[in-house]
Amino acid sequence: MRNLKFLVLVLCAIVSTLGQEINAQQKKIEPNWESIDSRPVPSWFEDAKFGIFIHWGPYSVPAWSPKGTYAEWYQYWLQSKSLFGNGDFSGTEVYDHHVKTYGPHFSYYNFGEQFTARDFDADKWAELFENAGAKYMMITSKHHDGFTLWPSETANKTWGFPWNAKDVGAKRDLLKELEVAVKKTDVKFGTYYSLYEWFNPLWKEDKEKFALEHMHPQFKDLVENYKPDLIWSDGDWDMSAEKWHSPELLAWLFNESAVGDEVVINDRWGDGIRFNHGGYFTTEYQSELDGSRPWEECRGIGFSFGYNTNEDAWDYASERTLIYLLLNVVSNGGNLLLDIGPDAQGNIPPIMQDRLLAIGDWLKVNGEAIYGTRKWERACQWSKKGKKDWKPEGTHYLPADYILKQTIDPEPGYAVREIFFTKKGSDLFAIVPKWPKNTLIIKDVMVTDQTEINLIGTNLKIEFVQKGKDLVLKVPNLTNDELPSKYAYSFKITNIKK
């Protein structure tokens, strides 16, 4: 009997070893898109639903561009004397502002010394992210100006002068400080990384050489020393993925790097790759995708991603607007990556903090209807009359307040989204942007004998009846003080018919 047990143990060990070897072989990613696309996006990303984007660098010193444009593109606007965004521009606005403010001979690179991060407290940032209800964050480890928030020898070498936060300005490894602080929390740590650099001498001389001798080693240094949970690639559009050698780089990332098993990537790895290959799909100042693949919408609380002192209070999206944007994205199966732009000293503007904390307050009550959910058979219920999906005309980027027109403030002749839906197993969540009067009719929902309906954030059980294919909720008359949250309210409907 002992010999038999010994043989069984040996066989189990052999089977386990073989299984591990097979799994290792299955995990190996080849340097081609078919193989890369076969790797599923880790499920935690789809569960997260809400992340915080941070644009921070030397452009945070001048912190200026015309309304409707990106302030983090300051160097490009300055040196190219061009401009695009929402508005009618001559193209020289940033150049004219720069000459008037700093003089004609003041170089953009001087802003590196002025990027002091004097007030930066990584632990306070991380605490804010947690209180906002974010499940991940993403910071610009390097934007298109080539300046890195970590001590990159590659940056110094190809630029020919110190061009990173450890050697100039702050004289600190800002990325490491933030990594350490965030990884003490339950928030995932992500790094934005621009493949290209507008005016890097090597980039201007030989783009493919730049990719292999600058971008690849710098990217690997970032990954191995900071071990991000997510990588948000950008600046990919000037070359094909083949010239960027992105498939080879991603094969290294998944097969050989320290984060290969769990790291999440996006879809910006070369011209034509976006919305086609890579990891999750990314939209920017758009409304929604169909949810057939994990995706993420990114936009700022103000219009600009980088801090823009030219923006006024009314240029920032309201608390209500941001919550409705979150609902629209999540109901369509996506995540919202909402951007903040700290100033050059490392202070997050109070108006941005207030907006994040308002979202956090709402999620503390309604998080069950958001986190870990998936898209239902339809994202929302439209009102009966009117055209759907109003959008403003003549804008390059979709302004945040479009969602108000689609919910509580419709244009004449247009319908509104009466209910947003999410699901979790056999439970359906119906989230309304307006508190219903007396009844709420949910079309084409069939309940079972086990169905119960609760108002999330309260102990209230909601009475209901099935009328044909429609579910009718008998909604109690609550005052504003009795409602569990502001702006939107979540009903949990258990055990619906599949």
TrEMBL record:
Residues 20-368 form the Glycoside hydrolase family 29 N-terminal domain. GO terms for molecular function: alpha-L-fucosidase activity. Pfam families: Alpha_L_fucos (PF01120), Fucosidase_C (PF16757). The record marks 298 as: May be important for catalysis. It is an enzyme of class 3 (hydrolase). Its EC number is 3.2.1.51. One of its GO terms (biological process) is fucose metabolic process. Keywords: Glycosidase, Hydrolase, Signal. It comes from the Bacteria. One of its GO terms (cellular component) is lysosome. The keyword Hydrolase applies. Residues 417-494 form the Alpha-L-fucosidase C-terminal domain. InterPro entries: FUC_metazoa-typ (IPR016286), Fucosidase_C (IPR031919), GH (IPR017853), Glyco_hydro_29 (IPR000933), Glyco_hydro_29_N (IPR057739), Glyco_hydro_b (IPR013780). Alpha-L-fucosidase is responsible for hydrolyzing the alpha-1,6-linked fucose joined to the reducing-end N-acetylglucosamine of the carbohydrate moieties of glycoproteins. PANTHER family: ALPHA-L-FUCOSIDASE, ALPHA-L-FUCOSIDASE-RELATED. Belongs to the glycosyl hydrolase 29 family. This is alpha-L-fucosidase.
